[in-house]
Design brief:
- The complex is a heterodimer of chains A (113) and B (110).
- By secondary structure, chain A is an all-beta fold.
- Chain A contains no helices and twelve strands.
- In chain A, the strands form three sheets. In chain A, strands 2, 5, 6, 10, 11 and 12 form a six-stranded mixed β-sheet that branches.
- Helices cover 0% and strands 58% of the residues of chain B.
- In chain B, the strands form two sheets. In chain B, strands 2, 4, 5, 6, 9, 10 and 11 form a seven-stranded mixed β-sheet that branches. A four-stranded antiparallel β-sheet of chain B has the order 1-3-8-7, with no helix packed on it.
- The chains are: A mainly beta (113), B mainly beta (110).
């Protein structure tokens, strides 16, 4: 079955420290991978995507993600966390160019001053 | 501003009421979606429309009735809902890849 796993319900980071939010996937074919962020009482906002090309993808607000085919992972990273990065982060995968996005259950990121 | 507008942002209704959620996208996209987001549960895809035609219905109860009169508008008609239907209902649109979401409609069923 095709799926996305976000193994951590919550990630706690101190402001200024690097952050990583983990995502692994299981799909047939070449995956299209996405990260979204959701602030309280808001909809999901697109952060970045990987379709093909360079394994390191840069996105909005200083975030980046690295596609690792052998480990079937697409972890979200940021070199220096901000308190304003505190939000719910969703990883999603589409099995190829067609089909609907499959979302992970989300990881709550908490950045403390 | 994502280009996808949902109204109302908040709705409280009794189990015997009939109400509707509205979604409008200004992005020229051809596909529109309804998702349900409940506390501590994964995002649930409910309905998908492509060029006004319904292409997916994820076993959604008939008390939820979608309507897509054109590629820019999507409605979710609600009738005789249950308290467990209380959730954030998200509309999204897409053209070639990523989804663009509205801010959601927070529904409370009493």
């Amino acid at each position: 079955a095709q799926s996305v796993a976000q193994p951590e319900d919550q990630v706690n980071v101190a402001e200024g420290n690097p952050l990583t939010v983990k995502c692994t996937y299981s799909v047939s074919g070449n995956p299209y991978l996405f990260w979204y962020v959701q602030y309280p009482n808001r909809g999901l906002q697109f952060l970045l995507k990987y379709i093909t090309g360079d394994n390191l993808v840069k996105g909005s607000y200083g975030f980046e993600a690295e596609f690792n085919k052998s480990q079937t992972s697409f972890h979200l990273k940021k070199p220096s966390a901000l308190v304003s990065d505190s939000a719910l982060y969703f990883c999603a995968v589409r099995p190829g160019s067609q089909g609907n996005l499959i979302f992970g259950k989300g990881t709550k990121l908490s950045v403390k001053p | 501003e994502t280009g996808v507008t949902q109204t109302p942002r908040h709705l409280v209704m009794g189990m015997t009421n009939k109400k509707s959620l509205k979604c409008e996208q200004h992005l020229g996209h051809n596909a529109m979606y309804w998702y349900k987001q409940s506390a501590k549960k994964p995002l649930e895809l409910m309905f998908v429309y492509n060029f006004k035609e319904q292409t997916e219905n994820n076993s959604v109860p008939s008390r939820f009735s979608p309507e897509c009169p054109n590629s820019s508008h999507l409605f979710l008609h609600l009738h005789t809902l249950q308290p467990e239907d209380s959730a954030l209902y998200l509309c999204a649109s897409s053209h070639t890849g990523e989804l663009f979401f509205g801010e959601g409609s927070r529904l409370t069923v009493l």
